[in-house]
Specification:
alpha/beta; 13 helices; D-Maltodextrin-Binding Protein, domain 2; about 15% strand; three-stranded parallel sheet; single chain; about 40% helix; 2 domains; six-stranded mixed sheet
Length: about 350
């Protein structure tokens, strides 16, 4: 048995079934909606999980806290399927450089699974003029027509950017201002949904009217456009979000050998190709792209020519990641988010 704790809607079931068929080991999947929920879950259930899927800044935070097991790359030969440029990210440089945080050289704590951007999706038939900046979301006409992710760092970061501050600003005064700015936006949202916002964009939450504008992750934008090709996705001028979801093993994993085997299996070319078809986020798995080209040339062409799944380098150069701000500042972000949610609950969604 492998106990995996991962983002909801992040691993196709066929990939897990293939692992069970080839190894005989069943995968028990528990899901979460945000990195903050992941960290809380690890604290609440120490020694419960073999595999986790932290995003970039959370890999940094967990590794710095000594909560992740250094990977045995010799047990993960499919490590070689990853595009080299993804193997030494800022949050986990691995064996390439000595960490500024004093981690031992050559230790690698994570391998990339999926990556993507965070931007604005909108229906041009209902939204005019087209949004170009995060600040455009605060148009009062969008209240009741907006879907947002339930992601504290991403949304508070967007509010900080709209105010002219850094996305990772830790000033208590600036964070308070971002909280106050975000409250009316969240109160005007029809749904807070990071996992399946395309549902709100295509049919509306609980059968209500469909949202006409929202903040979504790139893979969800692709899924939404499959249902409504008229939808448009824009990377705002203040800086789109960019994120990397990764495979890692907790330091107290009960079955680290099986976790290594599962990571290796997920990073195979065939599993990677199938994941692109099911979850159209961007992939760091170069071998998966080659496999998809051989297996399904039309879908490979669709993927590689779609600027959402394969964004231009110029757009990525302006993107802004969420960074690890340390435990004290992270706690401030989470407290501010709790106040935003409380205001939504007490004030009701307009």
């Amino acid at each position: 048995m492998v106990h995996a704790y991962v983002f909801a809607q992040s691993v196709p079931q066929h990939a897990l079934d293939a692992f069970t068929q080839s190894t005989g080991a069943r995968v028990e999947l528990t899901t979460y909606d945000s990195n903050e929920e992941l960290v809380a879950g690890l604290r609440a259930r120490p020694g419960a999980y073999d595999l986790v899927m932290p995003s970039d800044y959370t890999v940094d935070a967990l590794a710095t806290a000594g909560a992740l097991l250094p990977l045995d790359l010799a047990s993960i030969p499919n490590y070689n399927n990853i595009t080299p440029g993804f193997l030494s990210p800022w949050f986990d440089p691995g064996g390439v450089a000595q960490s500024a945080r004093g981690r031992p050289k050559n230790e690698k704590y994570s391998l990339p699974w999926l990556w993507g951007t965070t931007g604005i999706i909108y229906d041009p038939g209902a939204i005019d003029p087209a949004p170009t900046r995060w600040a455009d979301l605060w148009n009062p006409a969008y209240a009741g027509h907006l879907v947002l992710p339930d992601d504290p760092r991403e949304l508070l970061g967007i509010a900080l950017l709209a105010l002219g501050y850094s996305k990772n600003d830790t000033s208590p005064a600036h964070l308070d201002a971002a909280r106050d700015k975000l409250i009316p936006l969240v109160q005007g949202a029809v749904a807070l949904d990071a996992n399946t916002p395309e549902t709100s964009l295509l049919s509306g939450p609980a059968g209500g009217p469909a949202a006409t504008i929202g903040v979504v992750f790139s893979g969800n934008a692709v899924l939404a456009r499959r249902g409504n090709p008229a939808l448009r996705y824009v990377l705002p001028a203040e800086g789109a979000g960019i994120w990397f979801d990764n495979l890692a093993i907790p330091k107290d994993a009960p079955n680290p050998a099986a976790a290594h085997a599962l990571i290796n299996d997920l990073l195979s070319a065939d599993n990677g190709a199938g994941t692109i078809l099911d979850l159209p986020y961007s992939t760091p798995n170069e071998a998966a792209l080659d496999a998809l080209k051989l297996q399904d040339l039309p879908r490979w062409t669709e993927y590689t020519e779609d600027p959402i799944s394969t964004p231009a380098k110029a757009d990525l150069a302006r993107a802004v990641p969420v960074k690890n701000v340390g435990p004290e500042s992270q706690a401030r972000f989470e407290a501010a988010w709790a106040q935003v949610l409380a205001a939504r609950t007490s004030g009701g969604a307009r």
